[in-house]
Amino acid sequence: MTVSASDSASDSDIAIIGIACRFPGADSADKFWDVLREGRETLTRYTDEELLAAGVPADRLADPRYVKAAQTIPDTDLFDSELFQFTHDEAEILDPQHRIFLECAHEALERAGYDPQRTDGRIGVYGGAGMNTYLLHNLGERYRAAGSVDHYRLMLANDKDFLATRTAYKLDLRGPAISINTACSTALVAVHTACLALIGGECDVALAGAVHLGPKDQGYQYQEGMIFSPDGHCRAFDAEAQGTVIGSGAGMVVLKRLSDALADGDWIHAVVKGSAVNNDGSNKTGYTAPSIAGQAEVIADAQEVAGIAPDTIGYVEAHGTGTPLGDPIEVAALTQAFRQGTERVGFCALGSVKTNIGHLDTAAGMAGLIKTALMLENATLVPSLHYTRPNPEIDFETGPFYVNTETTKWPEGEGLRRAGVSSFGIGGTNAHVILEEPPARAAAPRGRNRELLVLSARSEAALQQSGAALARHLKQRPDLDIAAVAQTLSLGRRGHGHRLALVAKSARDAAMALALGDADRLHRGAPNGEPAAPVLVLDGSGADAADRAELYDAVPAYQDAVDACTRAGAGEAHQDFVHGYALASTLLAWGIEPAGLAVTGAGAAVAAALAGALPLEAALALAEGRTPGEWQAPGLPVLSPRTGAWMTEEDSRTAHAWTGTGDLSGLDAQLTGTGRYAFPLAPQDDEPAGLAHLLGLAARLWTLGADLDFEAVNGGADTRRVPLPTHRFERRRHWAVPGAHAATAAESQDTDRLIGRFDAQDPEHNRRLVTDYLVEEIGKVLGGRHLAALDTSLFDLGLDSLVLIEIVAKLTEELDFAVPATSFVEFPTIRAFVDNLAELMGFGAAPSGAAPAGDGRTSRRAQRAAAAQGPAA
């Protein structure tokens, strides 16, 4: 009998609701699935010329044991530093592993459909990184020569301790942030720890992941008896197995309690039924050796925690390193654990993702977990590669397992599909996770006939890429629930300056409009100074009965406003007023904050009600041509239809100011330069006045910079999320060249100090020298980006106290004067800082018209405080 998801569900079940990865040959979960189902190996082979260019010595290349291959990922020197608000210098010294972990965390949350700044509940992050070869090879000289401040900055940028907490800081995550490192089992231990935190209520959503980067463009030295393969291939469980290839990669999953994920309409890739972690202790031949007892125990413990029998498991993703010693030990441990609950033979498929992408060290378990989750989601078994005949030390004939070597449908059994995933770390920390196929996704409820889709990016080029990626995705999946697409895009993405919006009837319709770049349907907007605010133009026009009925049925806020008018006595004769009032009220309920109202004719009555000058009953009377007597000062500026000028408070209390034909032909010119713009609510060019028109108004307002309450825009219906293409990273190179920093420092020491160029008779000259010096030094940190103004707060530009303390230290040497370390805290702009320094050093008062820099007494007090304190934490 088939078992349903609800029958097997447990309060401790955890859903995987988002996946991001950068694995060899695949920079997304979709591409990784292609690699797996196609049975591809992603090994990169190098020429001698490539390896020599990467710094591999020629004598090493001549060694026949040197394997000129690697499992690698491209562009590890590139990073979207501006997205995460890193200065150029900060990004350059940041461990590339931390950079990739950050990008994967951001992408995983977007794939899950969650923007941390609009997510209730706490989001935790658990993860680990591999050995930091960037610090060793690229920053070693700088680290050894660093002063106290630079040493501190390098430590913060490169130590494993700061991986999770930096991610929490940059993404504004409020749950636990815990760095975890247990060698090769790091990723699965992070998943286990995150699941416990979710079950215990420490967080409501959790990121779990790991990253490992080896040196760029390097092969490796084969040594018999070690873990490395002599030819670059990993032949897990095969008689010819001789090891694996250590690879680079990163993976991240978003986890959530299954009950919450179902309630919130999340897309569920797979379910974590249980997990366990242990250590071998000393009961083995050596510290790095595996243990049958330890592995068998952790597998059996995970099955017990999950509450499932071993014969319900149809697949095991093994640690599977392809070593002659390790593979037999692993299969023996699996067999020992399974034999505690079943005597069946040959029923459980076995595989190792290391045969595809190599051994990703700390991220290895994440590759195995994501592979298995995708197999469960797609109900498909994928092949383990390079398997021809079994390792003679493995007894597959009488055991529960067989090595799966083909892509095939995962057979249905009497229950739900289940799998185990193993990861065993050097040093003995073992982890095992039990996964189950996702619950069947309920059919999408019948929704309204149109939805608003929004996209944004930090540049026009990135926006174009996002639009194209979404068009391809929707074209390939034309049956996607368009309401779920709209909700995922609007609620699960941060809004950036370059914006695109589209009203669509279906996924197919949206794909077509995006692919064609339909200018009549695609609303676009880009940054243009400070955000402008709309002045709503109300002309009293109405809508036909069909359009009003459509809006009433589809939009709760419109319905509420119509019902309020009905209670106030509105009848058939008031329908133009009712529609105009409900339309504008809906936009206000959706988060629009107008800068004012401009009215003509019958629109005055709507404006009086919207602005609070009249209650609805009295506004209805005004719409009929009667003159109500109870006027209040409006809560919004209103342009009088009689005078064409903004009403004063005195004007607004008289009916006379609210009547008249209203000539708004000069409104655009009147608003020029005010930070406001005219926004008519009436349909244009015979456009229908129904739902498409209302969503189109919201689209235009959003692309012009308005903040919308998308939960309200989406109709207040139950949220449903689907995986969609994510933010297009705008990466640029951040890569420290060994020795470059020392050369720059030596060159700067050879130049004359700033104090030597001072002119005792020209204070303004001295002020310019210091100002120019600061602009140059800060510009270096910001990567050459132009400083907006001398009066812009440096903290708003993304600088932190450590960077500024280092600049102050350099300036102290240049001036041979103890510049207070906290000066930039008290005086955070360049102009204010220089004015204060001029006062302290006595090289001139502030020029006329400049803002006062504060009194010297305050700065000297800060100077004494700075002398007594250590580096800022």
Strand % is: 5-15%
Shape: flat
Largest sheet properties? 11 strands, mixed
Report helical residue fraction: 25-40%
The order of strands across the largest sheet is: 7-6-8-10-1-11-18-17-12-13-15
Q: Total number of helical segments?
A: 34
Description:
It is a single chain. The chain is α/β, with parallel strands linked by helices. Helices cover 38% and strands 14% of the residues. An eleven-stranded mixed beta sheet has the order 7-6-8-10-1-11-18-17-12-13-15, sandwiched between helices. Strands 24-23-22-25 form a four-stranded parallel beta sheet. Strand 12, helix 14 and strand 13 form a beta-alpha-beta unit. The chain is flat, with a radius of gyration of 33 Å.
Keyword list:
26 strands; 873 residues; eleven-stranded mixed β-sheet; single chain; alpha/beta; flat; four-stranded parallel β-sheet
Give a brief description.
This protein has 873 residues and is of the alpha/beta class. The chain is 38% helix and 14% strand.
Write the layout of secondary structure elements.
Layout: H1 5-8, E1 14-22, H2 29-37, E2 44-45, H3 48-53, H4 58-62, E3 66-67, E4 69-70, E5 78-79, H5 88-93, H6 96-112, E6 123-129, H7 133-137, H8 140-145, H9 148-158, H10 163-171, E7 177-179, H11 186-199, E8 205-212, E9 220-221, E10 249-257, H12 258-263, E11 270-279, H13 292-306, E12 315-317, H14 326-338, E13 348-351, H15 354-357, H16 364-378, E14 380-381, E15 401-403, E16 408-409, E17 418-424, E18 429-436, E19 451-457, H17 460-476, H18 482-491, E20 498-504, H19 507-516, E21 523-525, E22 533-538, H20 545-554, H21 556-567, H22 575-589, E23 596-599, H23 603-610, H24 616-623, E24 638-639, H25 649-652, H26 667-671, E25 676-680, H27 691-703, H28 710-713, E26 732-733, H29 740-750, H30 763-781, H31 801-815, H32 823-826, H33 830-841, H34 856-868
Parallel strand pairs: 6-7, 6-8, 12-13, 12-17, 13-15, 22-23, 22-25, 23-24
Antiparallel strand pairs: 1-10, 1-11, 2-4, 3-9, 5-26, 8-10, 11-18, 14-16, 17-18, 19-20, 20-21
Helix pairs in contact: 2-16, 6-10, 9-31, 13-14, 17-19, 20-21, 21-22, 22-23, 23-24, 30-33
